Amino acid sequence: MNDTAGPYYVPVGHEEQVFRAAFRQGLPILLKGPTGCGKTRFVEAMAVALGRPLVTVACHDDLTTADLVGRYLLQGGDTRWADGPLTRAVREGAICYLDEIVEARQDTTVVLHPLSDHRRQLPIDRLGVTLDAAPGFCLVVSYNPGYQSVLKDLKDSTRQRMVAIELDFPPPDIEEKVVAHEAGTDPETAARLVQLGQAIRRLETAGLREVASTRVLIAAGRLVAEGLDLRTAARAAVAGPLTDDPAVTDGLARMIDAYLGEDDG
Amino acid sequence: MTVDQLGLLASAIAGRTVEVAAVEPGEPPWTDGAIVFVDGEASARDQVRAAAVQACLLAAGSLAPDVLRRIGRRSPTGRRYLGIEAHRALAAQEAVLPLAVRGVIDRAIAARSGSPSASLVLAAGRAAIPEPPEIFGAIRPQQVRPAPITGTGDGEGEHVPRRESEQVLRELEDDEDRDGGSGFDLFNPVGGGGAAGRLLRRLLGSERGRGGGGEPGADTPTHRATTGRRVAHRAALSAATGALPDDPDAGRGRGAVYPEWNVHARRYRAGWCTVGEVEPEGEGREPLVPPDTQALRRPLARLGLELERRRRQPDGDDIDIDAVVEARVELAAGSAPDEAVYIDTVRGRRDLSVLVLLDVSGSAGEPSPTGARVHEHQRAAAAALTLALHDLGDRVALYGFRSLGRQAVQVLPVKRFGDRLDARALGRLAGLEPAAYTRLGAAIRHGASVLEAEGGTPRRLLVVLSDGFAYDHGYGGAYGEADARRALSEARRRGTACLCLSIAAGTDIRALRRVFGTAAHAALPHAGALPVTVGPLFRSALRRAEAQRRLSQPRERARARLRIEGSTR
After folding, report:
1. Checking CA distances to A199, which of A7, A191, B340, B347 falls within 20 to 30 Å?
2. Ordered strands of the B30-31 beta sheet
3. What is the mean pLDDT of chain A?
4. B9 and A255 in contact by Cβ < 8 A?
C-alpha cells in the first residue's frame, strides 16, 4: 500500500483505511500515541499517498490564534495581511497537521471549532471574512496521552469533533523492519535493539519520563551503522536520553549489558 | 557493580516493579514478590540469570497465592515444582529474555506443563523430574507477598476483595514470624544513618547552607503584574466579589455544614454533611523525621518563578508584531499610540497558597506493594510537600481527614496556615493513625473553603493525598465517586487548583479517574517519585485554575454590577 516515493511507513492496523475514509468525508483526525511511535511519519506518508500538500505546525505554549490564522504586517507604512499556516492550508486544500496540540493553550485551539465540524469554515475576524475550506483540506491533530494520563488533556468540545486513530509502538516484527530500514542496520541488530526496547517498555514508569520509543531505537541503530558497537550506541541513544537519575542509569546499563552483550548463552 | 542495579532488568522481565538485593551468604536465590534476592558474589552472568528466573516466576503467575498454599511446607514438592515450573515460566517469557538467559531453558521439560497448576500436579506425582540447576534458587511459599491489587471493581463490592487480601497477608506474616524473620528488616535502629542520626543532623543545622536565600540560580523575582494596566481593575473586582452572599465559608466554625451531590437524583442534598475540626491526638509525640526536601524543592521553586513570555510590555527582547501594527494604525489614524510593543521574558512573583489534605482513613492502613503501609508513604509525601513549600516561602497548611458517617466528618489540622511548622506540628503528623472511613467530597469542600478563606493569595492549590477509595456510611461506589468529582470541580470553578496524588496504593488508574475526574491526578509508586512528577502536575493544575479564573471573570463582573445596581436602587 506504500507509495514508493513517499516516506517509509508500515501500517499496523486499520489506520490507513480510517485516515482515507475520514479524509474523503472531510472529518478532522485526532492521532493519539506515545512520543516517537510514528505519528508524524504516518501523516507525512498519508499526505503523499493522498496527493495533498502538508502544512505542519508544532504547537507550543506561546502559539496564538494570530500565529495560526495570520496577521497584518507593516510594509512601507501600510499594513499588509499575511496568511498563517492554518489559513494557507484552508485556502489550498492542504492537510494541516497540528503536532502535540495539547501544548497549545485552549483559547488558541478554539479557532479550530468551526473548521472541525460540518461547517468547515475559518472565520477571520480581522479581515471580516469567513473562508470555506477548499476541497482536500483536512485537519489532523496529534496528541500524546502520556503516562500521567490526565496531566494535559484536550477539551471535550474539541475532541468530540474528531475521528480518533490510536497509534502505539508497532509489534516487534514490524518494529524490527522499521528499525532496520530507517537505520540501515542488519536485521539481527535491529531485532536485538527492539528486544531491548520491548523490555524497557515493560517497566512501570520507574522514574523514566518516556519509554524507549521507536525513534530512539532507530537513533541507536544509526549509531551502529556508523560503526559504534551495539552497547555503546544503546547507552548513548537509549539510556542517556531517558533519565538523569544515576541509579536508573546504572539499572539501564545492566539491562543493556544483558540484552545486547555477547551471545554466550 | 552491585546487584541492586539489576532492579530494572528484573522489573522489565517480571512486568511489575521489583527490587533486587543480595541474598544472605550460602542461601539460594529467591523472591518474596517485591524483592528478588540473588547471590552478590556470583558472576555477573549468573546474577542476571538468577534474577531473570525469579522474575519469570513472578511474571508467569508461578507464585500465585493459591498455588503456594497447595505446596505448603512440603519441601520436596516445592523443589520438584520449581524444577518444572521454572522452565515453563522461562519459556513463557522467552520473548523478553536476554539471549544469555534463554540458554538455561530446557524445552523438553517446559513442554510438559502448560500452567502453574499443571506443574503442581506433575510435581505432586511420581514422574521423574530433573533437579533444578543451582541458579534457579528456591521458592519460599510462606514468605511470598500477594501481587499488588491492580484493579477494583465498581460499587460496594470493592470492600470484600480487599479484606480477603489483607487476611491472606496477615496469615503469611504470622508464618513469617514463626519462621524467624525473613532476613531483612525495615527499621534498623543501629548505624549512623538511622532516623535519630538524621534528625540530629537536621537539628544541629549541618544542612543550613541550603536553607534560606531561595533556590540557587533562581533569579530575583520581578513584581511585574501579568497584564499591566488592568491590575487595578482586577483588584477592585476581587474586592467586590469577596463578600458576595453566596460565599462558601459563611457558616464555618466548629462544625461546618456542606451539601453533598446525589448523583442518582442529580441534585444536591443541602446541609448534608457536618465537618468538624478535631485536634490531632498526636500532641507530644516523637516528631516525624523531616524528610530531605532538596530534590523536591527544585521543581517546586520554579513554579511561581517560571519564565513567562508576556506581550505588550514597555520593553523586552522581541517585538510584539500585533502591538506594533496596532500602534502604527493608531498613529496613522491620528490618535496617540500605545508604546508597549515588546514581548518580554519575566519571572513572576510567588503568590501561592497550598492546602494539603491527607487521607487518614482505614484504607490507608493497607500494606503497599513495597512493604510499608500506604499511610507511611502518603504521610512522607505530605511532610515532604509541606516542608518544601514552606521552605520556599509559600503559605501552606496540612490537614488530615477521615469520617464516621455524614454527621461526623473529621478534619485534623496538623498545620493551619497561621501555625508554625515546628517539631510540634511534625509530632501531630507522626501521631496520625489510619482509622474509620473516607467521605472524600465533604473533606474536599472543607479544605477548599479553608484555603479560599485563609490562603490569602490569588493562586490557590488544593493537594489531596488519598488512595482514591471513597467509602463511608451511605457513601460507596458510584455515589461517593460522583460526589468527590463534583466537590473537586466546584473548587476548580472558583479558581482553586486541585491536584490528587495517590501514593503506593494499589488502586488502578481507571478507578482514580472515576474519583478524581478531570482534576490533575497521578499515581506514584512511592514518595520518592514526587520530585520527578510534581513540577508538571502542579503547573498543569495551576494553569487550569488560571484559565478558569479568566473564564469566570465576566460572570463575576456581571454579578458585581447587579450588586451595585441593587444597592443604588
Report:
1. A7
2. B19-22, B35-38, B30-31
3. 85
4. yes
| Mutation for A interface: B5, B8, B311, B514, most A CBs within 10 A | B8
Q: Select from B145, B179, B186 the least CA-distant residue to B31.
A: B145
Interface contact flag, B520 A150, Cβ < 8 Å: yes
Q: Is residue B201 part of a domain?
A: no
At B235 the pLDDT is 33
Q: Give the model's pLDDT for residue B532.
A: 79
Which chain B residues touch A153 with a CB distance below 8 Å? 518
In a domain, residue B372? The reply is: yes
CB B424 within 8 A of CB B363: no
Range of the domain at A225: 172-260
> Number of structural domains, chain B?
3
Candidates B8, B101, B547; nearest CB to A248: B8
Length of chain B: 569
- Whether residue B344 contacts residue B317, with contact meaning beta carbons closer than 8 Å, is answered with yes
If you count them, how many residues does chain A have?
265
Q: Under 8 Å CB-to-CB from A38, ≥6 apart: which residues? A: A9, A167, A170, A178, A214
Percent share of chain B, pLDDT over 70? 74
Contact (CB<8Å) A265/B8: no
Structural domain includes residue A7: no
Query: How confident is the model over B433-442, as a mean pLDDT?
Result: 90
Evaluate whether B375 touches B434 at the Cβ level (below 8 Å): yes
- The reply to whether B327 and B428 lie within a common domain is no
Mind giving me the DSSP string for B348-372?
A: ----EEEEEEEE-SGGGGSBPTTSS
pLDDT tens-place string over residues A215-257: 999 999 999 999 999 999 999 999 888 877 777 888 889 999 9
Q: What are phi and psi of B414, to 5 degrees?
A: -80, -45
Output the pLDDT for position A117. 85
Between B100, B509, B520, which is nearest A264 by CB?
B100
- Chain B residue numbers with beta carbons less than 8 Å from the beta carbon of A257 are 44, 48
Identify the domain boundary among A166, A199, A233: A166
How many angstroms separate the CA atoms of A48 and A5, rounded?
8
Domain closes at, from B347, B372, B405:
B347
B104 touches chain A (CB under 8 A): yes
Summarised one tens digit per residue, pLDDT across range A6-44 is 789 999 989 999 999 999 999 999 998 888 889 999 999
- Per-residue pLDDT of B209-222, as tens digits, reads 333 333 443 344 44
Residue B214 φ/ψ region, left for φ over 0, alpha for ψ in the -120 to 50 degree band, beta for the rest: left
DSSP one-letter code for A226: T
pLDDT at residue number B227: 39
Per-position b or e across A154-184, b if 16+ CB within 10 A of its CB: beeebbebbbebebebbeeeebbbbbbebbe
Q: Is B9 on the interface with A (CB under 8 A)?
A: yes
> Are the Cβ atoms of B321 and A250 closer than 8 angstroms?
no
- The whole-number pLDDT of residue B55 equals 92
Reply yes or no on whether the pLDDT at B117 is more than 90. Answer: no
Do A125 and A46 share a structural domain?
yes
Q: Are A207 and A248 in contact (CB under 8 A)?
A: yes
Phi-psi group of B67: left, alpha or beta (phi > 0 → left; psi -120 to 50 → alpha; rest → beta): alpha
Count the domains in chain A. Answer: 2
For residues B391-401, give the mean pLDDT: 89
- At A147-187, the pLDDT tens digits run 443 345 667 777 788 899 999 899 999 999 999 999 999 99
